[in-house]
Specification:
341 residues; alpha/beta; Spore Coat Polysaccharide Biosynthesis Protein SpsA, Chain A; 4-stranded mixed sheet; globular
Length: 341
């Protein structure tokens, strides 16, 4: 709008007009509304492989949050029924972005692919069998905004019975902390700082937002710039331990990770139809890779080789009971998909 200002007439008898403190009325009145910042949002990134019907519940819960601007589902491979259910949601919900047809590229690589499709400054890595509760994302974004020093955070992750899930908050994984956890050496000297357990779910519960060393990739909220600056998830890990590796790299760079105990999500777990023995194999490979990547300077090579041998020996010992339990569950229809039908 252009405003033309006319000069005052050149007269000898000019009147002095006194400005009075009163609002303008009529068509000349201008109402100025206060400028409000838009509510923060995030992009949810899910990676799914033979997840089963729980994936639909997880997607709907994520899309129910107004703080979620977009959900990127990286479909590494699902059955026909699940794909049809995904397609139905996709047809109704413009915020859902489904990536399919690339095959099973592993969790880390799929996370990196999903983050490239983000449309917000904050991303939430969320497991496809994790159910968001109302207000959880909003609370996470609020804490992240209030703590600019934080590079990532998680919330209380619960089992279906409401108990805190193992691995949701933990100390950094080292050969020593794994030894303490495996043999419960913390019972010898429970108050000694060098005899702390790896997993903290059985320790005194936290009541305030607190820093922790390591969190689970089941729910990991962080600025996209932090994720990209760290190089994303390390694609040398196909399945498992990539979240531990990511936290280790954040720790080495001096970053802070927060745990928010006053909101929670439910992580169902074990919903995939993949053989648990296959999962344990990938986990063993990933743990060995992790130790080689991060502890070669501190530990001699022969010690790391012994640790690797112990990891796979443990897998061999557990292989038979794991397989028998899985076969028995499938025979009696106790797998997660059968229980829902």
């Amino acid at each position: 709008m252009t405003v033309n200002i006319q000069p005052l007439p050149d007269t000898e008898h000019r009147q002095l007009i006194v400005a009075r403190d009163k609002p303008l009325v009529g068509p000349r009145a201008i109402n100025v509304s206060p400028v409000t910042e838009p509510a923060p949002t995030c992009t949810v990134v899910m990676v799914s492989f033979r997840t089963g019907p729980i994936l639909v519940d997880s997607l709907r819960a994520a899309l129910a949050s107004a703080a979620v601007s977009k959900v990127v589902l990286v479909d590494n491979g699902n059955n026909a029924d699940t794909r049809r259910a995904i397609a139905h949601i996709d047809s109704e919900e413009p915020r859902l972005d489904v990536l399919q047809g690339h095959g099973n590229i592993g969790f880390a690589r799929a996370c990196n692919l999903g983050v490239t499709r983000s449309d917000s400054d904050v991303v939430l890595l969320l497991n496809p069998d994790c159910i968001l509760r109302p207000g959880v994302v909003e609370r996470g974004l609020e804490v992240l905004a209030a703590h600019p020093e934080a590079s990532a955070l998680t919330v209380r992750i619960e089992n279906t019975d409401g108990s805190e899930q193992r691995g949701a908050r933990r100390n950094l994984m080292t050969p020593w902390t794994c030894l303490v956890e495996q043999f419960r050496l913390d019972r010898i000297m429970p108050n000694h700082p060098h005899f702390q357990r790896l997993n903290l779910n059985e320790t005194e519960p936290l009541h305030d937002v607190s820093p922790v060393e390591c969190i689970s990739g089941a729910f990991m909220l962080l600025p996209r710039r932090v994720y990209e600056a760290a190089g994303g998830m390390d694609e040398d890990y196909f399945l498992h331990v990539e979240d531990v590796d990511f936290c280790m790299r954040l720790s080495k760079a001096g970053h802070t990770i927060l745990y928010v105990p006053d909101v929670a999500v439910t992580h169902v777990k074990s919903t995939s139809r993949v053989s648990p023995l296959r999962i344990e194999w990938h986990k063993s490979v990933s743990v060995s890779t992790y130790f080689r990547k991060h502890f070669r300077p501190q530990y001699p090579d022969f010690i790391l080789r012994l640790i690797g041998m112990a990891i796979f020996l443990r897998l061999v010992v557990r292989a038979v009971p794991i397989t028998l339990t899985w076969v028995a569950e499938r025979l009696r229809g106790a797998n997660p998909e059968a229980r829902r039908n």
